[in-house]
Amino acid sequence: MHAVPGTEPAAAPNGGAVIRRSGTGWSNRTPVIVAGLGAALALATVAAAADPPTSAGQTAATRTSTGTVLTWTLPTGTGRTGNAATGAGNAATDTPASFGSGPAGRAPVGSRPMVRRFPAAGTPSWQLSLIVQYLPSTNQTQYVAVIAGARQAWVFGGSNLAGHGVPEVAHRINGQWGFPLLPAGLYSWIAAASAQSPADIWAVTHLGGFLLHWNGSNWQTEPRGGWRASVQFTGINAVSARSVWLFGAGSRGHPGGGTWHWDGTSWSPISGIAGGIRQASPVSATDMWAIGGIGGTMNALLRFSGSSWAHVTPAALAGFRYSDVVALAARNVWVAGLVAGQPKLAHYDGRGWTVRKMPGTVAATGICRDGRGGIWVIANSGKAPSELRDLSAAGRWTTATVSSSSADEILACALVPGTQAAWGAGKSAALNVKGSAAAVYGFGNVP
Fold first, then answer.
1. How far lies 9's CA from each of 31, 34, 414, in Å?
2. Residue 260 lies in a domain
3. Number of domains making up the chain
4. 336 occurs within a structural domain
5. End-to-end Cα separation, the chain, in angstroms
């Protein structure tokens, strides 16, 4: 797969600012701060400059005891200065005017420096690789999904998950992060994505019912089925070139879009017990596991056998309220959830289920391979320090630090095939404590 035509430069000169093209012109609305990190660092925030910078893209790097802080300035006229911890950084914009939520380029006046310590390079930890934030700094910018390949990675999310925002993606290839343009007219954020191949990636927005497809060159919107724009979607799985599953479980705020299947030509609704699936994980096109709701609950485990969905009710999983499911192989399936308020994991080996206790008090919301026969388990408690847990093939629990701050969290992870390296999508502290920045973390020797 080659680089996307029409995107902004992959990196700014000397780590300075890049302004992304929006529509037919170049815009400096709602800047995104992007910073790459390869070592331990501190990220501090500063107040807005009293006077605008005198030249575009000024940068100055300073050393601290915990890393390098790069101070950047946006082009003349934005009246904005800021800083981002970085080894090499860039900044970009891509928010349509109709979804702008404040004056462009305005920094939080009087904000105090906020220092967070990330693990030093070489320690068994997740290292910050990328920070992206859409201003104003109260925006809840986050990445919530990740796809990892042998030489590239994709992360998906939105400019503001707490209000008016737009979907966002970042693409890493040849060791550089880039930001492919998405079609115009989108809103909400990308809730889920799935790749059948490097040139066949599907994504769906949380609200609006927008379907996006990467064809190896660019992102395009795909014709939708008969669902309304007001419903929400929560999962998508591309299981073959002519088979894509779409899932939308409801919540208090929005009705679910239901379950749909694309056969390469059109979308068809799937009714019955499969209508309330929240997310699924395929072993193959004819073997899938899912969690969702039957009768208005969210405590159902389901399995697709190639022709129909069945409700699976093993005695060992009695009382499970499911929070995640990952099918790594036909004889290697994991589910997470709560049982009587206590977090549990359960493993299916092709014959039966074994339930395991899980450290902490929070149910897992994400699971991925660790490349050593075990699994990474995401269970953010909202308390410092921020960590990921690893369950080894021998059944031993260990932890890997993400950050000393609870503001820095990994929300989804994916193993780089054939390695012990992994990518994590999530969030980091914003320019002040009121918002969040989207962040990408890497474990091990990520490409």
1. 15, 13, 26
2. no
3. 1
4. no
5. 15
